[in-house]
UniProtKB/TrEMBL annotation:
InterPro entries: Tudor, Tudor_domain_containing. It holds the Pfam family TUDOR. It comes from Oryctes borbonicus. Residues 153-211 form the Tudor domain. SMART domains: TUDOR. PANTHER family: FI20010P1-RELATED, TUDOR DOMAIN CONTAINING PROTEIN. This is Tudor domain-containing protein.
Length: 240
């Protein structure tokens, strides 16, 4: 609540601007309230300041899609697993909100390593600074895996260790296919999403959260205004 003394009329010119805050209803949740797990899942997107794509489905009913990665699953779909999941042990689970994201300020320059580019002109890179810590973390992961071979079933938005071509990396669980015993995971330090069997997933300890998630997904400036967009993307793919 703000005191009346701090309230003022706005000018006519300001009144011409549309309100930027738009309360919405997520598809699939029109009649229900969010559970504590679902609220925590959504708060993770807010804290990471992730960019979302929105699709209107009806009267004030929307679907939201994360632009981070290439899974193209709506937040509503990802949240379905939360209601089906067993009650989590809050003290032992590591959620995406527990790991900071590496961010750059506008105008900041940084040496980075390009690790991939997606067909929709999204480029994925990781910062060169802190690579020594990252290498040390990977060594700790290798050591941890040798003594922790038990497969693990994470809930949506939980961090885990996931196998990729014989190596283990930090990943975020995006969606589970219980029937096929598969999970779609997003590798938070490399920016790619894949579907892997549950046997390729391990529980991630909390002390692996010290290093921020390194993968940054961005767009190349002015590439959409170029007549040679596809040629530029092909050249970048060849270079990396």
């Amino acid at each position: 609540m703000a005191p009346i003394s701090e309230l003022k009329n706005i000018s006519e010119s300001l009144a011409e601007y549309c309100a930027t805050l738009t309360p919405i209803t997520l598809k699939g949740f029109e009649k229900g309230r969010f559970s504590d797990e679902e609220i925590e899942f959504l708060e993770g997107y807010c804290k990471r300041e992730e960019k979302l794509l929105t699709k209107k489905c009806g009267n004030n009913v929307f679907e939201l899609f994360s632009l981070n990665g290439n899974d193209r699953l709506s937040l509503s779909e990802k949240m379905k697993d939360l209601s089906a999941a067993p009650p989590p042990n809050e003290e032992s689970r590591v959620m995406s909100k527990d790991v900071a994201s590496w961010k750059m300020k506008p105008g900041q320059t940084e040496n980075v390593i390009c690790v991939g580019i997606q067909d929709e002109d999204q480029i994925i890179f990781i910062p060169h600074t802190g690579m020594d810590q990252f290498v040390a973390l990977n060594e700790k992961i290798v050591e941890y895996i040798t003594t922790n071979s038990e497969p693990y079933s994470p809930i949506a938005d939980e961090l885990c260790l996931a196998n990729y071509e014989g190596e283990w990396y930090r990943a975020r669980a995006e969606k589970a296919n219980k029937a096929l015993e598969e999970y779609q995971v997003y590798y938070i330090d490399y920016g790619n999403s894949v579907t892997i069997p549950s046997s390729d997933i391990r529980k991630m300890p909390k002390d692996f959260c010290e290093i921020p998630a390194l993968a940054v997904v961005g767009h190349i400036k002015d590439i959409n205004n170029s007549n040679s967009k596809n040629d530029i993307i092909d050249i970048i793919k060849e270079e990396i």
